[in-house]
Amino acid sequence: MGRGGVRERVGAALIAACLTVIGVQSAVAGRANDTLVVAIEGEIPTLDHLYTTARDTIVVSELTDDGLFYIDPDTLTYVPLVAESYVQVDDTTIDVTIRPGVRFHDGSVLTADDVVYTYNWVIDPATNTNRGRLIANWLGSVERTGPMSVRFHLKHPYPLAIRDMAFSVQLRKAGAYQGADGKPDPNAESLKLNGAGPYRVVDFQPGKSVTLQRFEDYYAASPKGRPAIKTIIFRTIPDLSTQQAELVSGAVDWMYNVPADVAANIGATGYAVHLTGPTLRVNFIPLDAAGFTGADNPLTKLDVRRAMIHAINRQDIVKYLVQGDAEVIDSACHPLQFGCEQDVSKYSYDPAEARRLLAKAGYPDGFEFELWAYRERQVAEAIAADLAKVGIRAKLRFVTLTTLNQARKKHRVPAFFASWESGSTADTATIAETHWSLKSDRNFSNDAAVARNMEAAARTIDPDERKRLYSEALRRIADQAYWIPLYTYSQNYLVSKDLAYPVPKDGLPRLFRAHWRAAKASPAKAS
Amino acid sequence: MLRYASKRVVLAVLVALAVSFAAFLLLSVATDPASAIAGEGAEPEMIEHIREQLGLNRPLLVQYGSWLLHVFHGDFGTSYYWHQPVGTLILHHLPVTLTLALSAIFVTLIVAIPLGTIAALYPNSLIDRLSLGLAVSAQAMPSFWLALVLIILFGVMIPIFPISGDAHAWNYVLPAIVLGAHSVPAVMRLTRVGVMDVMASDYIRTARAKGFYGYRLLSRQVMRNALLPVVSVLSVQLGYKLGGSVVTETVFAMNGLGRFALQSIVGGDIPTVQMLVVLFAMTFIGLTLLADLLNAWLDPRIRLA
Amino acid sequence: MSEMDLSFKAAAASETGGELLDAAPARPKIWRNILHHPGLMLGLAILGILVILAAFAPWVSPYNPYDQNLPQRLLPPFWVHGGDAAHLLGTDHLGRDYLSRLIYGARVSLLIGFGAASIGCLIGVTLGMCAGFFGGIIDRIVSFILTCQLALPGLLLAMALVFLIGPSVGVVICVIGFLHWSYYLVVTRAATQKIRDLEYITAARAIGSSRLQIMVTEILPNLFSEIIVIFSLEVGVAVLAEAALSFLGVGIQPPTSSWGLMIAEGKVSVFLRPWLVILPGIFIFLLVLAANLVGDGLRDLMSNESRR
């Protein structure tokens, strides 16, 4: 690699040499000890995924928990996991047969009783699980139909039932939340977890680290397979520079959410491997078309919104800032998602056209507006600079996520830099509901027709009908330029040279698929 | 003395009330803790659910009053984010910050007092000018920049100290230097002035006449009087360090109260922030009380005032 | 000496050394002595250069600091391999010329430094004069306010205000000003107390001047020299405070180029591109150093004067 390659190497060599001082951990990590050390930025407050939505906990939960279903990383479809098979009996009934031989970490066998207990616990409003209410929206009841079979009764047809089961309901043993005094204890699994996943927890220090070990009695027939690595340790290292230092010194083997520049540079030094991978995350900017922040504000005019999309050089931003596997999008969804119509109005990069449209709309000298953001500062700045070139002065407001949500609730936000991962689900419903429902404060369009379509598409399980509904809605959205669609996000990983890590298509890290390389191979991009 | 101290306690309580209410108000208006808890990809319905759970839709005065009531009963609240009692969390993070603050004061003392004393004993000499120059320079550096420079020096060039984490004693060296560097000028100047003033007194002139020079003029009494103002300054500085180590802890990735406070403020974790603010206010006033008491003990003249 | 005095003293002394508290109020006639004080001269010189840079930024800087040029991003300075002479100090993450941003950054830092110091001055001097002149319950109230301000985390206040009003340079100036008036307060209060008891004040009261008149016409001018000293020191404090706030994310917003923000943006690649952090830091250092030198120099001159 050009640009100071030798210098970088020398610098990095010095870094590595000195940073072995950093501590005991360097002796622990790596192939020699069959221990994978992962650095994460956020804290893990609890082991119980039913009671947290902290971002990094899902990576841990994939290892420690199993649900009835699972998203196959290669096909992005839902396959039975703890379930052996399922039958859609009718629009609102699903029969599930449970696989024999699945064990919890404490050794007991998983049966229909455990499944029923878990689901009842989740939909019970008194238990306050994080996603309970969302599940209870569609799940009426679940009943045991045999020692290894259950039947789910839905309140209405719901196409994402299997997905919600896979994503949100990690199985617990019957009676898990029974406190010693007989009263229910929601915190029962937060410090010690009895899950059914391929790894079990051997040590947990909230906010600092989680240590996992391969569960030897994990069922052989599992689609997740038997993990190759024996021990995985998650360490919370909030500071990015420190993470890098630890990685280079060998104390850490795997990192994700690394900024593109940093990852590229460290990869170039040869001390770690830089992997990029797609995700289901899309970035976009909703515009206040409905006039919530001011009845006559410029964003209420269609020509103005179209002009804004024309003004931004999305290709350059993707190429130079986001890099990796990112791609420009034109529709209000991720191209890999079911129902994501790609045949929609597209607005090319054309500043002259932007100015023409602005003049036509009555703003020949441009206008001013506030662009709020809580992430991707560099991209937001770049966008603001592009808009400024056609006369639109975007006042950037960088705030924290909580502040943004508060402001949006109060209708103080005319436009914000939005990002949505759709729970790594390849279905448009997961992005549509939240952003186009008339009750959502993320919906700046107030468009009843779109809302109707989105809602209907989430209430039927007929794939063709759903496609039709989404297609119609997405075409209208693009036509009306309710959003400035930006790009799909590319995830950057930095991994040890000894590690082989298959990069996931949906950006959801599945560390049970990682394994050590056999011999000292030169760093290559794993696929 | 007792009346004095009890007046301080009343003051401490009043300040704590005022400040905790201000903090509560500011956070309630500027943040939405429910969305911090729910996370980035949460559906609005989930966020609303959490808001109800936490009682965030009640009128502000009711929320504050409820918190106050709980505090009087010894219940310091549960963190929105960590689901653990705030008291436990604060105790968990306290040792790091305390160690850091004390190490920083130690650094300040071993650098500033000798330098200040030497500067006073040989006024206008090269040492005096150099140390004044050092003092002025140290005060002019942004602490986080100094921290980053130290990281570059000791992370890339001369590998002696660890540059992150708080696991071992060695981890505290660089952060203590950064945190302590800022107080060195003030303490040094105070020491210098204090010593110089004492030097000018009759008692010293007599000693000089008898043939004592340089460091032999230093006695317990000289140092005692010279260091009087230093004591008060240091105790206030300790307060600042405890509250102001946010930047240092962030750059060096240490798990102290400073970082914890930053995370809590940013995340809108109201119960935690309120307790932290109360704690800091109490500590601050307690430290100034300590300083006054120390001063009284060191200089009997003040006691009589 | 009231019990409040001791902690007041401590709070003030923590800023720079407290000698000012004992200086007798005097109208300075010693401006000619400036030339003999090397520290003061150096400080004024540096300040002068920075002010000129800031004032003539559009003519001095090679590029517009907002000119984005993505294909040219993250170029190193010309002395590093890969650097380009077209951009002497390299470019930042959006391809903007670093030297230009540093020069324009002087504007922001000087504006904030002087602006915040002024606001702090306004608040602190007013409160200090009232507390010193009226004493009694007003004094206690002011002391209470001071303690509260010292106990409230500045970051919290900054974050909330920036949210409520918006992240303009003006808001940042106000925030920093609101957080740094304690030193003015303490010194003004002590000085006011001393003057209050002098005979000519009693005389003025006797002939019927209102209290406000006395404060403005008799007391304030005597405080002038002290306030100037504090002001110059507080400029340095304000610049550092802005840098810290920007570093923590609640200060100046992009695309405005502030030195503190530039450091914050460069921190993530500090190992591989240390100049992104070192260069702005040097500038901050110079400005604050200059401010401190001027402040110290003025104080030295004053205490020399008062010893005569």
Evaluate the radius of gyration of chain C.
Answer: 22 Å
Task: Based on Cα principal axes, name the global outline of chain B.
Answer: flat
Kindly, what is the distance between the CA atoms of the first and last residues of chain B, rounded to a whole number of angstroms?
A: 11 Å
Q: What portion of the residues of chain C fall into strands of 2 or more residues?
A: under 5%
C-alpha end-to-end distance of chain C? 27 Å
**Chain-averaged pLDDT of chain B:** 77
Protein structure class of chain B: mainly alpha
Helix content of chain C: 55-70%
Low-confidence stretches of chain C: 1-28
Instruction: Work out the number of β strands of chain C.
Output: 0
Q: Indicate the mean pLDDT of chain C.
A: 79
User: Which H/E pattern describes the elements of chain C?
Assistant: HHHHHHHHHHHH
Strand elements of chain B, count: 0
Rough outline of chain C: elongated
The SSE order of chain B reads: HHHHHHHHHHHHHHH
Give the gist of this structure.
The complex is a heterotrimer of chains A (527), B (305) and C (308). With 527 residues, chain A is of the alpha+beta class. Chain A contains 16 helices and 20 strands.
Write a structural description.
- The complex is a heterotrimer of chains A (527), B (305) and C (308).
- Chain A has 527 residues and is of the alpha+beta class.
- Chain A contains 16 helices and 20 strands.
- In chain A, strands 1, 8, 9, 10, 11, 12, 13, 17 and 18 form a nine-stranded mixed β-sheet that branches. Chain A has a four-stranded antiparallel β-sheet with strand order 4-5-7-6.
- In chain A, α10 runs antiparallel to α12 (377-389) and α15 packs antiparallel against α16 (463-480).
- The longest helix of chain A is centred in the last third of the chain and has 18 residues, at 463-480.
- Chain A is globular.
- Residues 1-27 of chain A have low confidence and may be disordered.
- Chain B has 305 residues and is mostly helical.
- Chain B has 15 helices and no strands.
- In chain B, α5 packs antiparallel against α11 and α9 (184-199) runs antiparallel to α11 (220-244).
- The radius of gyration of chain B is 24 Å and the shape is flat.
- Chain B starts with a helix and ends with a helix.
- The mean pLDDT of chain B is 77.
- Chain C has 308 residues and is an all-alpha fold.
- Chain C contains twelve helices and no strands.
- Chain C has helices spanning 3-16, 38-55, 57-60, 98-134, 136-151, 154-165, 169-179, 182-196, 199-206, 211-248, 259-266, 275-307.
- In chain C, α2 (38-55) packs across α12 (275-307).
- The two termini of chain C are 27 Å apart.
- Chains in contact: A-B, A-C, B-C.
- At the B-C interface, α1, α6, α7, α9 and α11 of B face α1, α5, α6, α10 and α12 of C.
